[in-house]
Specification:
A hairpin with a 4-residue loop joins strand 3 and strand 4. The chain has 5 helices and 7 strands; from the N terminus they run αββααβββαβαβ. 26% of the residues are buried. The chain starts with a helix and ends in a 6-residue tail after the last strand. A 7-stranded mixed beta sheet has the order 2-3-4-5-6-1-7. The chain has a single domain, classed as Gcn5-related N-acetyltransferase (GNAT) (Aminopeptidase, 3-Layer(aba) Sandwich), CATH 3.40.630.30. Helix 1 runs parallel beside helix 2. By secondary structure, the chain is α+β, with helices and mostly antiparallel strands.
Length: 188
């Protein structure tokens, strides 16, 4: 069932990408910023999850809600089927609106599949559902920060050789508050 669901969302994403390219709209995820973190730079979060929300571990029953949230946010498809072998145990966090029983955010900590020479941790697919109007301008960044802090702590508990995140400019400063440092791009 999960694999079929993923194939359906993969197809929908591909169709959307084609349609967006036809009308000349750029994908929102094209310019990612590479950041790294060492445990000595980590700044522990003192911010609490807002009342009415809870952060819990991802469960299989969340798969359709998760894919819908990714689709609505224009972040692209995160293949759970692919990432399952890389996600750290107790490292896939979701935010739930308790009163509405809705999934409104997610993030996960994983071992990076990009690094072949050393064990590297990575934070992937921070997402907050853009269709949820009840997320206020104050609540949205607080939830994102809480998710990023939990995923960061989970990475640090794993004692990887290095840790990385590729993020958009919108959340770069949030990661900096947790101690992440931007990697300077080398000119070719």
């Amino acid at each position: 069932m999960n694999y079929i669901t993923e194939v359906i969302f993969r197809l929908a994403n591909k169709i959307r990408s084609i349609l967006l390219s036809i009308i000349g709209r750029k994908n929102s995820q094209t310019d990612l910023i590479h950041m790294t973190l060492s445990s000595s730079n980590y700044v522990k979060s003192k911010i609490k999850v807002p009342t009415g929300y809870k952060i819990r571990q991802f469960e299989d029953k969340d798969i359709i809600k998760y894919y819908l949230m990714l689709f609505r946010s224009d972040i692209g498809l995160c293949s759970i089927h692919y990432w399952k072998k890389h996600i750290l145990s107790n490292g896939f966090f979701v935010v739930e609106d308790v009163g509405k029983n809705k999934l409104v955010g997610a993030i996960f900590a994983a071992e990076s599949p990009r690094c072949l020479t050393s064990k590297t941790g990575t934070i992937e697919f921070l997402v907050l559902d853009p269709s949820n109007d009840w997320l206020s301008a104050v609540t949205r960044p607080v939830l994102a920060y809480c998710l990023a802090a939990l995923a960061t702590e989970r990475l640090l508990n794993e004692n990887f050789y290095s840790n990385e995140v590729f993020c958009t400019n919108v959340v770069k400063n949030m990661y900096k508050k947790l101690g992440w440092k931007e990697v300077e791009r080398e000119e070719i």
